[in-house]
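Hi support team,

I submitted a single chain yesterday and got back a structure, but I'm not sure I'm reading the token output correctly. Could someone confirm the output below corresponds to the sequence I sent? I've pasted both exactly as they appear in my results page.

Thanks,
R.
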Amino acid sequence: MTMYRRIRLGQRGAFHQQCLTEGWAGLDFDLNYDLTNQFPPTWREFNEKYIPIWLKVHPGKSRNAAGLACALLWVFGHELQNGDILLAPDGQGDLHIGRINGPYEYHPGQILPHRRPVNWTGITIPIDKQTPELRASIRGALSLVDISQYETLINQFLSPISPTPMIPEEQAFALEQHLEDFLEKNWSKTPLGSKYQLLEESDQLSSRQYPTDTGYIDLLALSKDGQEYLVVELKRGKASDSAVGQILRYMGYIKEQIAEPHQTVRGAIIAFEDDLRVRRALQATTGITFYQYKIAFDLIETT
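Hi R., thanks for writing in. Yes, this is the structure output for that exact sequence:
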């Protein structure tokens, strides 16, 4: 199965043109080690070995930052296979499409030294042809983001058939479709924002779409006193009881792989509505809170 990832080639895509011209994509994370033949079969094994190494190189940084950096390097260097699709934004917001066509390479002393050869197709998805959801997904700071949910839209541009125009933002009126983007921008105004702050480690690391070995956490936050992680799972419509199992898996990963011994982990499911099965599942669990979001709409006469 083909994987689809958005990759940011340097801060704000600063090196995208060099990568396109020379035929490669790369990451940095300030881990100056040759990882050739060093990728074990599982992400967990890789993190166990390289998180301590990364922390020695970056004294004062959190285990969260180390886990995220190592995880993304493992995904980029090992999980992604030849033929998988990369989308790289340029400084104008257009997305350049490429296919991975070679194994991991290490280029010491150069920009983005952890690299993969890429056949950049010359095909772009202009910013005005992107759906609001796709556009929101590429704005985050995270260097590598799973965008497989947009496979159909991306393949329209890879097809020799002229792509169907995508819906412009001004024609899409549904807050559910922008829930993740909205919460990130308005976090401080929510009830959760009074106790927790979204993680922002650097320009390459973000609390949004935080990778785990069982999927991606929509948002990851840390209490302002540093004592408790909050795993946030967003459902744009009705939440099902499967969301409870999903967030429990994410919470287990954070507790085992990221949290320090003195830190606890809680969960929050945010959805438009729940049902009886969700309420029953939550009654049998601890540490997870359900939040229902509301949509407000108004018309204001200006003339």
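A quick pointer for reading it: The domain at 4-168 is CATH 3.10.590 (ph1033 like fold). Let us know if anything else looks off.

Best,
Support desk
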